[in-house]
Amino acid sequence: MKTLLELSQVGIEFKTDKGPFKALDNVNLKIREGEYVSLIGHSGCGKSTVLNIVAGLLRATTGGVVLDGREVTEPGPERAVVFQNHSLLPWLSAYQNVELAVKQVFRGKKSRAEMREWIEHNLKLVHMEHALHKRPGEISGGMKQRVGIARALAMQPRVLLMDEPFGALDALTRAHLQDSLMEIQRELANTVIMITHDVDEAVLLSDRIVMMTNGPAATIGEILDVDLERPRNRLELAEDPRYNHCRQEVLRFLYEKQRKVDGTARASPGAGQPGAAHAPLVANASTGAEKPQPPRAGRTVVTPLHGKHVA
Question: N or C: which end of the chain has fewer CB within 10 A?
Fold first, then answer.
């Protein structure tokens, strides 16, 4: 597959009262067409900043982003963004929210009938055809996020950018949406860049996982290839040694980075050592769950269902 998107020597500084703050430094990444790439790292490591630069919402201070041979300098419909907050207009129905994006991109290119068919098609992709005319206040949080994804897909973007799209959802809804996203990506072969704090989510969905170092001057620390065949079944992966190896590699990186921040002298649990797969750090890379704790008594099963530990 050819390279679709390239970040070259990307760095960015922000002005503050105490002087310039360098958030990113020398970020280099090539993403192939049809690839699913996750960015993971501790809070404040610049993941969202990278995504915003790719989206054209921020301009890099040094370096730049090239999409299919053209430099990214501003937002464009070829890069659709799905945020953790669905950002639907509450006075419009699900259909009308998607229609806004379709009219922006396809006005003069599609007839009214074609646009209507396209809107309904994309809502069907996310299993929301039964709620076309419901407003956001009449549907659940998971349904709202499905509509947000449909709106992004309806723009026919070359790259789908997702900033913790399932972070605010309950575990079961999150798992259903992960499955839906895998189905959509398999059908459409979208190029996807997703930010996540969930290690299991990253391994389940991704072709590669990009692990960010801690800021300031954050950069790419390691890149992990996820060598798991598609389609992927989360229950089968729970017993797959390759899945668990990928999982442990990400955890090792995150644990080591946090250990340096904390200034502790404790060694990181290695692969195969007792407790290596049981510390709550594995569930989430955000600051709220970074410090490892002893496993609970009884048998603990690690499952890629939603990045949690089920005793």
Answer: C
Q: What's the number of domains the chain is made of? A: 1
Closest CA to 200 of 171, 223, 173: 171
Q: Is residue 55 in some structural domain?
A: yes
- What span, in angstroms and rounded, lies between the C-alpha atoms of 121 and 259? 48
Please tell me the pTM assigned to this model.
0.82
Q: Residue 188 falls within a domain, yes or no?
A: yes
CA pair distance 305, 20, nearest whole angstrom: 42
Taking Cα atoms as reference points, which of 221, 218, 163 lies closest to residue 11? 218
CATH of the domain at 65: 3.40.50.300
**Residue pLDDT, tens place only, 76-88:** 999 999 988 878 9
Using alpha carbons, list the distances in angstroms from residue 298 to 78, 276, 303: 50, 16, 16
Q: Is residue 117, in this structure, part of any structural domain at all?
A: no
Specify burial of residue 43 (Cβ count, 10 A radius: 0-12, 13-18, 19+). middle
